[in-house]
Specification:
The chain is of the alpha/beta class and 334 residues long. Helix content is 43%, strand content 19%. The protein has 10 helices and 12 strands. The structure holds adenosine monophosphate and magnesium ion.
Amino acid sequence: MVVLGIESTAHTASVGVVNERAEVLGLASDMYRPSKGGIHPREAANHHVEVLPGLVIQALEGAHVRPNEVDAVAFAQGPGLGPCLRAGATVARMLSLAWNRPLIPVNHCVAHVEIARVLSGLDDPMLLYASGGNTQVISYARGRYRVLGETLDIGVGNFLDKLWIALGGTFPGGPALELEARNGGNLLDLPYSVHGMDVAFSGILTAALALHANGASRPDLAYSVEVTAYAMLTEITERALAHRRRDTVVLGGGVACNERLRTMVREMVEGRGGTMYAPPRSLCVDNGAMIAWTGHLAHSAGVSAPIEASAVEPRQRTDVVATPWRADPPAPER
Ligand code: AMP
Ligand code: MG
């Protein structure tokens, strides 16, 4: 069983080819990088339209798989930027028609959970999904992935990007801030915005920019922003574990490449006697392999969509998507 998956929810166009053992046979990605400012959806979509045909060929060649050996075509249906999603969906529909193979719509957030779940071997982990546009704590219960906590304003990666660009850098800001933070060590006072199970970042952004205007150094700002924002994410993840009586966590999303975040979450989880797993970077960021793997799970459970019912859903919520491939785990002991 070989599935080809197409990811195009935001800045990354990616095509992955996986088999039924979740082996990534081929993966080809190309990220849209604006010369200045943040992502412009139309420009990102144009980028995806240009690169996707070549990425399909590259992924298949890398996998040593011929088109007639592909059993199904999966694509990210949402959530994401409308024009970007449509670029990927159009290519997926075309391949599905040309190859006469089923078309499998996949929720992007669920795909982050599923790739981390299979790679980690953990049966029922909590996902801390920290990316550009999304920041959520996700756990499975009775037929669906549930969002237990999330950002009330912008995604954590978006926050890091906005800050870095305002400080004179270019997109993406997260990796550059991570390097800058290594030279800082003076913890500046920033708002700590945890509201129950949710977090917010725009207040920290305003406060960090005000500190910068008053002469705070960029390394100290980077350090303080990382410590503050990642402590908030670690706190809501820990509360989610306590409420759900779970002890395993997986990470997903571009911000989950960050060493400080990985370390903070690992220390919290291991301090509770649990296990934390973070996928390798290529599978933490947006990628076609996670779409292909989740497409395989969905296909095995009988999910597919006729072309006319395959519209993209830019605001698709994690918790509206049925996940018939998951058996309910036994209730934890009280
Ligand atoms: P995604 O939306 O999941 O593809 O991830 C992209 C986001 O991850 C962007 O906002 C990046 O700034 C952020 N990001 C990537 N690498 C890192 C890192 N090492 N530390 C923090 N943020 C990162
Ligand atoms: Mg993502």
